[in-house]
Each structure stands twice: as structure tokens, then as C-alpha cells.
What we know:
The protein is an all-alpha fold. It is 75% helix and 0% strand. It has helices at 2-41, 51-60, 65-75, 87-100, 102-118, 131-139, 145-149, 154-177, 182-201, 206-209, 213-238. 20% of the residues are buried. The model has no long low-confidence stretch (mean pLDDT 86).
Amino acid sequence: xxxxxxxxxxxxxxxxxxxxxxxxxYALVVGSWTVYSVARWNxxxxxxxxxxxxxYLGATGWDSAAQVDERLAxxxxxGSYTGTATSSSYTGAATSVISSDPLGWIKRRxxxxxxxxxxxxxxxxxxxxxxxxxxxxxxxxxxxxASVVQGDYFWQKLALYGLHYTALIGGLIGxxxxxxxxxxxxxxxxxxxxxxxxxxxxxxxxxxxxxNEVFWWVFAAAALVRLIDWRFRSRAAKx
Length: 239
């Protein structure tokens, strides 16, 4: 994606040189792990080898290692699971699950991805009832607002929610405001889209999407700069 961006920025001749240099450096960095993996374990991988497992977990969900193994033994094609999970057993089981209910798989993936975006990374480290359950309990009339505020680690969780949603909402505004400056915005938007689309198919958890948070904040800050500029221009026009 970055190589294509360089071609768009600099044209074919200069862009191709820049893209080739970028891809060579990238290959050397990623290839160091490939060489180490072959030398240490006699196992050829590029970046990582967990794609089939995450595809299967995206189709069935995660409970615990024991339960995943138990389901895998039932869902993997005959002969592909021998007590040790392999790429072929994960791939075969995922194919079986998805093909048996493709619409259910699509619904599961969209729902899980949305929940992963709406749940800030880090709140699960705090004990007690989740902030979401506390709020929905108040809306249903099951508890009072005072009891919500007195919940376990309420203010810490609220701070995480506030920061996370400020980044998402401000980031969307910033992307829209800077849509014409695609030369600067496109690489960051590209990474956000890349991770989003990857986890639309694979298992999605808040911590897997968390690397995007940096770029959401960049766009949120850009939106704030535009707001400040507009405010100063409005005040200057009045005077």
C-alpha cells in the first residue's frame, strides 16, 4: 500500500525507485525473522504463521484453549486433527464452519468488529462489572445513577471511554476535513482500513485494533487545529 502511495506521489520513474527501496528495506526487516525461524526451528514463515488459527477463531469465537481444541476436534475434516492443531486443521475447520452458515459468519464478523471498536482497550484489566453493563443497567432501571458512579474503577473506565471515543469521533471529523490533502492523510487512513479489513475476517479484539489509536488521534488533533483556526478567524472578522 505504501509502495502504491509512492507511485501516486512521485510518478512512475521516481515513485518506482522509492517503492523498490521501501520494499527492499521491508523485505530485509521481515526476512530476518524468516531466516531465524528456518535456522532455529526449520520452519519457513513470512511475518507469522497464525493466519489459519485466527480465521478459525473469527468463525467460532474464543472461550479457552481447552474449549477451542475440543471444538476443533469436532469440526476439523477427518484426519486433519490428530491432537495437535495445525494450519490444515484450522483451515479445514474454518471452511466447514463458514460454508455451513455464511450469513451467520458475516453477521458474527461485523458484530465482533463493531464491539471491538466500541470497547476501549484496557478496560478489561479493571476488575468488577463493566462500565457498559452498569450504564445499560441504569437505563433499564435496574440500578441508580449513584450506584453506577460507585462501581468498581468507574472513573478509570470512564476516562478510557472518554479518550477512546474522542479519538474515534474527532478522527472521523479530521479525516473528512483533510480529505483533499490525501498525500498526507492516505497512508494513515490506509493503515486504519487495513487493520479493520483484516479483522473483519479474522478474530477481532480491542487490543488488536489498538495500534490504530495513534492515527485516530492524529486526525482528531488535525480537526482540533481546524477548529482553533476557524475560531480565531471568526473573532478576527468581528473586530
